[in-house]
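Sequence, structure tokens quoted for completeness.
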Amino acid sequence: AFGGSVRCVQKTGINAEYMGLLNQDKDQMEKKEEKEVIPPPAQEATAAPAGKAEEKKEEKKKQKVKKEKKEKKEKPKKKEAKVAYVKDPNDPCASKFGDVELIRSQCDPEERFKKIYTPVCNIGEDMLGKEIRVRARLHNSKIKGKIGFIILRESFATVQALMIISPEISKGMMKYADSIPKESLIEIVGVVAKPNSEIKGCTQKVELAVKEIWTISKSCPVLPFQLEDAMRRVENQEDEEGEDKPAEVKKGEEEKKEIRVKQLTRLDNRVMDLRVPANQAIMRLQSAVGRYFRDFLYSKDFVEIHSPKIIPGVSEGGTEVFKLSYFGKDACLAQSPQFYKQMGVIGDLGKVFEIAPAFRAENSNTNRHLCEFTMLDVEMDFKNHYFEVMDVLGNMLNYIFENLAKNHKRELDVIAEQYPFVPFKWKNPPLKMNFLDGVKLLNENGVKQDPTKDLSSESEKALGDIVSKKFDTDFYMLYGYPISARPFYTMLDPKDPNYTNSYDFFMRGEEITSGSQRVHDQAMLIDRMNAAKIPLNTAKDYIDSFKYGAPPHAGCGIGLERIVKLFCGLRNIRTVSYTHLRAHETREDLVCRLLLEKKKH
């Protein structure tokens, strides 16, 4: 019952004391159970011989159970770490295995390409009989007697390596292979061979007959969690949320064998978690989204900018900012590059974009919010109507979707293997819908929505389901939001000042971007800032940029992590974040704090 905690809590000191307290409680419970064993009642003289035999049998069983419990308790625990291997210099295969000297670039640089390495993903039947060199992680190994199997992993590709004791492979070489901890970086020289039976546990369907095995970088033998546990198929993604706790095992029930690595444990050990094939695929999709975003906008003559992230005042007029002191002056981390994008357009760059971090001091631990995330920002001028900008943005997102589906089937399959999802659907051209029409659809389907208020998360989800069924698309654009739902720099609707020239884009019923036509008249902008009670001196440079004539323009900011999350049908945004600074107290922190308070008193 306490095994899960021991595996997840690898620290010493107070945590060791905490585990000691748990074990004391366990021992007391076992003693109590032993005391409560009721001896069989004395047999009556009139009892039948068969009854006596049955009762003697029961008593023997109880004594046996008691004895086994005692032996189990007294039996010393096995050491988790393998005994260190000492290499015999006289081993006939000594030149074919061992720990490589720490690589400090000490070799002759002219010989840097002397050794040719083959990526694991490229090993196939076209290489049968060929000797190759592979450097990868030791994912798993099973050495027993005269035969051994080693699974090598590189990114999300795996291949099996086979070792059999022979004149080419000594017993010492086999023992050395068995001593290498999981997750160590190793190098194998071997011949590509066809296995006797199909290899189901690896991506590559051939195997390597090992000739040499070397350890490049050794891993700690005790891991924060096992990669096999972190790679398990997840039917319900809610099961992964939270942190690991000791398993509750009721009397008479066996402990569940399947271990689920919780999300907070993953995030606290992100270096290990990134090695999970599904996470490898997710990070590659993130990279691809950024690349296709750039490719499309460059093809439309956009200019990439790099705006400051430490700014005076606030970037969007909200209160959810990280404030800081900048050489004695008040400043904050940018919520978005909004003002700087507009300055670029007004400065006659015409069309600009940026890929950069954004910061929101939102104290909301939800599955869709992050305090720091990657924003794909776009701003461009237009001639007559802000729909011109919506068309470019819609086509750009469709370009991303099409290329992800076409060029990244392998990554999507790897993710679906661990986190099953329904393929994403979109239409070309994208569906545009007026905000009031969306409100009408919600009300017709029993979801009450005020037309003068922003949509709640529940309403957005409900509308996404309705649109998916009615129009057969998971991606759509909603425009014409009420004034209460938009920042001060949003242009008002010329036909109804209670609404705005604004838009949100949705994937699977979740918002991925918010944008609008901006106010490009200085007098109107000052009026809007005063109405929003934003001090004019905090945005002086921004206001002054409209003095000398500004073209009509619009844009948006898109959350990169949300695109990947929703395209792959993932539940929690932290699954796709590269790393995550935890703002809330962990279970382990809580235990440490309580124990410190106990010591103090």
